[in-house]
UniProtKB/TrEMBL annotation:
Domain of life: Bacteria
Signal peptide as annotated in the record: 1-25
PROSITE patterns: PROKAR_LIPOPROTEIN (PS51257)
Annotated Basic and acidic residues bias: 35-44
Keyword Signal: yes
Region (Disordered): 25-44
Keyword Lipoprotein: yes
Name the record gives this protein: Entericidin A/B family lipoprotein
């Protein structure tokens, strides 16, 4: 029972870490796209 609980906690932790990295990366991509769009609109 204890092994299953530890394994479940490790899997859940791994998924949380991977999810945070994915959301963070998507946020950076959106910021970059927004900056490029603004620059293009301003003729830079």
């Amino acid at each position: 029972m204890l092994r299953k609980s530890i394994a479940l906690a490790l899997v859940a932790g791994s998924l949380l870490i991977a999810g945070c990295n994915t959301v963070s990366g998507a946020g950076k991509d959106l910021q970059s796209a927004s900056k490029e769009t603004k620059d293009a609109m301003n003729g830079k």
